[in-house]
Amino acid sequence: MKAAILKKYQKQSPKVVIQDVGLPKIGPHQVLLKNLAAGVNPLDLLIAQGQFKLVIPYPLPLIMGNEVVGEVIRVGSQVARFKVGERVFARMPLNKIGAFAEKVAIEESALAKVPEYLTNEEAATVPLTALTAMQAFQLMDVKKNGRLFISGGTGSFGSMAIPLAKAKGLYVITSGSERNKARVKDLGVDQFIDYRTTDYSQVLSNIDYAIDTLGGSETRKQLSILKDGGKLVSLRGMPNHDFAVRTGMPGWKRLLFGIAGWQLDRLAAKNNQHYYFMNVHEDGEQLTTVSDVLEKTRLRPKVDRCYPFAEVNDALAHVAAGHLQGKTVLTFED
């Protein structure tokens, strides 16, 4: 089978090589998938650029790809929840990614069935963004009627996080370009802020929860709008000591990330707030919950552009260019 392999880190315009590799073997709790579609994410770029090495030191060469939609073609002897022929999707396990390949071996516990109404390409937009939202909600222990701000929520993450937040009974506020206002309003947003005309930090206060998709100075601004005791999860900020402890990192990494995130931790502590950095892990149970929400809402996730597997480097370059209106997806054909 063919797979897209990263052979060296490159800070600028990283590229993978498509080459033949052996068919993966499956264990008793694993299934083998024929790949139907795979999401292409900023995370893939961070890994290829070497910016993720301290968090997870993947050995090279590495089969790339973090989320997969596939058809089950073989099941392990102890697999009980899935059978041959079913269409499933998953965020690949953190310690063994590899979605950019014609065949994928993956643990049963990471999988969920794809809602029948979704196309393969639409389904490929779901696992990483949906699990990011679900795990952020879990980390912040969100409560019904709480006020949630999602910075830059008009992209692929917001498109999935907003309806999931509404399903949890949250009041949702987001910022973005005015041209996307109607679309996110249709998803359930309660308050929209046009970032070109309004600084959200000047009009928002007493916010219970925030999900930071921007990083940099925006993380500090979002801490400023939280109430006393408020909570913020950053997807683009600095890892901190709490993150290192939660993920079981060794002492030297706890010290390193404690130093890296010290300023944000100190800023949050002034108002009894909590700053979290998170890395999204596989979770078939959570993804099944997402599938149930999708079946009820009939949400059609936004696909920005599809590329055939042979053009995987073009797909990565497209993601690197930014300004996406949804998820970039790789498609696989027989």
UniProtKB/TrEMBL annotation:
InterPro entries: ADH-like_N (IPR013154), ER (IPR020843), GroES-like_sf (IPR011032), Lipid_raft_assoc_Zn_ADH (IPR052585), NAD(P)-bd_dom_sf (IPR036291). Residues 11-330 form the Enoyl reductase (ER) domain. SUPFAM superfamilies: GroES-like, NAD(P)-binding Rossmann-fold domains. One of its GO terms (molecular function) is oxidoreductase activity. This is Oxidoreductase. It comes from Limosilactobacillus pontis. The lineage of its organism: Bacteria, Bacillati, Bacillota, Bacilli, Lactobacillales.
